[in-house]
Write a structure and sequence with these properties.
The chain is α+β, with helices and mostly antiparallel strands. The chain is 45% helix and 20% strand. It has 13 helices and 18 strands. The protein has an eight-stranded antiparallel β-sheet. A five-stranded antiparallel β-sheet has the order 11-12-13-16-15. It has a three-stranded antiparallel β-sheet with strand order 14-17-18, with no helix packed on it. Helix 3 crosses helix 5 and helix 8 crosses helix 11. The longest helix has 54 residues. It is rod-shaped, with a radius of gyration of 41 Å.
């Protein structure tokens, strides 16, 4: 269907274009086609003179956009700022090869709801096609009506692609060493007449350089000749390559994390693995802090139990903070005179186990406690570190690692059996020496008197000494094995 002819609100010519006037290029034709009443605005601005400074800046900006790639053009913006108000942005101009778009970055629509420009806004934006003169008049009228006392100047910004990319990501995982808080890569200032004033490239901040040099700055000043398409593209491309590297590293780390998490989850489906982990708990890492383990579907839970005279607070375990919420099996701190009883749970996910197992830093396996006065008490346990390392080996290499885990459990089982046996042989030794001595003195002695010789007394003495020595040897052997285990792994219960 043929488009009905329209009368251009700006020049009065009859036009058949639906986006702009084919004679004067006015964007108002496009607004009229959308059913927007532009007559009041057109009457106000029709005879407004063209501001040469604004037009010069728009032409400078759109020329850059027309010559630069679309990928790069999305990073550029032209800000019209008020010098008297700390360079506060009044309007922001963005452009593509097809249209100029203006954004009002504040929430003051109520302040100009009755002005002639208000109907042209769609939310806080206005599109002008490629009508530069129409855009200049709009900006001029906008400033005249809403910012009559402003001392305007202009800033062209090239935004940091890192922020534009990562602000739109659903995955909020980030890596501190890669974070980049630069809002802009380039900032170029112009005066109200559109003359170049100052330009700056911002390099990524280098903490090492700033530590070595008190006068270090990441700002590189540029001249008007330096601010061209080639330098913009070179600088932005360098940052995009760095961003791609960060994204790849992040994806690699994410994949690696998912891989180790999956390995742990698979092992936590194995009852033998779970039983071994639970069995390796129940030992003291100090005279008053006791360790147990628990398992969930995706993590190992490390539980510390404290019994002591003073009230303490559990801090971090290496880099891991205590679990905030109490589970059913965790008791709140309570006082049972004269002892304080406190329990705290730490959740070790697969990356935590991997880090502890592979790190040579003792702090990774150090428990931090605080007394009532805020004094720090650090408890490091080589045994706990060794157990967590063996647990991780069983996750990473289920065949060989599980063999080591079972060996560790077997040693602990043997240790606990030896403790029971030691108590039994200690009891038998006491019985043999005690009862044997009594029998030797009384029964053997009386018998010897009756028969008139010392043979019965000697027999009883020989039997008592033999049995007592046997029990004592067994006791000493078990005691030696127990001490050997405790010297390597510490006491268990």
């Amino acid at each position: 269907m043929k488009l009905q002819s329209l009368v251009c609100p700006n020049c009065g010519a009859t036009t058949t274009k639906k986006d702009y006037c084919e004679f004067c290029g006015s964007f108002l034709v496009g607004k009229l086609v959308k059913g927007i009443d532009v007559s009041r605005y057109a009457d106000v601005v029709r005879d407004i003179p063209i501001d040469n400074g604004i037009k010069r800046m728009l032409e400078t900006f759109t020329n850059i956009i027309n010559d630069i790639s679309e990928k790069h053009s999305k990073l550029l913006s032209l800000k019209i700022v008020d010098v008297r108000n700390n360079n506060k942005a009044i309007l922001i101009v963005q452009s593509s090869k097809k249209k100029i778009q203006l954004t009002y970055p504040h929430e003051r629509f109520g302040a100009f709801a009755n002005c002639s420009m208000y109907p042209l806004f769609e939310k806080n934006k206005v599109s002008f096609g490629m009508d530069i003169d129409g855009t200049v008049k709009f900006i001029t009228q906008f400033i005249n009506e809403l910012y009559p006392n402003a001392d305007t100047s202009f800033i062209i910004h090239v935004s940091n692609p890192y922020l534009l990319t990562y602000n739109n990501e659903e995955d909020s995982t980030s890596f501190d060493e890669e974070e980049d808080d630069r809002e802009y890569l380039v900032e170029v200032k112009y005066n109200r007449n559109g003359d170049f004033v100052k330009g700056v490239f911002y390099e990524k901040w280098d903490d090492d350089k700033s530590y070595e040099d008190d006068e270090y700055t990441n700002e590189i000043e540029i001249s008007s000749a330096d601010f061209n398409l080639q330098t913009i593209e070179a600088f932005v491309n360098k940052e995009i390559k760095e961003l791609d590297r960060i994204a790849k590293d992040k994806q690699t780390k994410t994949n690696s994390r998912k891989e180790v998490e999956k390995k742990l989850e698979l092992q936590l489906c194995d009852k033998n693995f779970i039983n071994c982990v639970l069995k390796l708990g129940n030992f003291y890492i100090s005279g008053y802090v006791f360790v147990t383990f628990a398992c969930s579907k995706s993590s190992i839970h490390l539980k510390f139990k404290y019994r002591g005279f003073e009230l303490i607070e559990f801090g971090s375990f290496g880099e891991i903070s205590p679990y905030k919420w109490l589970l059913d099996s965790d008791k709140k701190p309570y006082l049972s005179v004269p002892w304080w009883y406190i329990e705290k749970r730490y959740i070790l996910e697969a990356p935590d186990l991997k880090r502890i197992a592979e790190s040579q830093d003792k702090n990774e396996c150090t428990l931090h406690l605080y007394d009532e006065c805020g004094n720090t008490k650090n408890i490091y346990s080589e045994r706990l570190r060794m157990i967590l390392s063996v647990i991780w080996q069983a996750v990473e290499d289920p065949v060989e690692g599980m063999s080591k885990l079972k060996t560790l459990c077997s040693k602990k089982d043997e240790y606990q059996r030896n403790r029971l046996k030691r108590e039994s042989w200690e009891t038998w030794a006491k019985i043999c020496w005690g009862i044997g001595s009594c029998l030797t003195l009384f029964v053997g002695g009386i018998w010897s008197l009756i028969v008139g010789n010392c043979n019965p007394l000697i027999w009883f003495a020989v039997v008592t000494i033999s049995l007592g020595t046997l029990c004592l040897v067994k006791f000493i052997g078990l005691q030696s094995d127990i001490k050997a285990y405790e010297s390597k792994y510490g006491k268990s219960y």
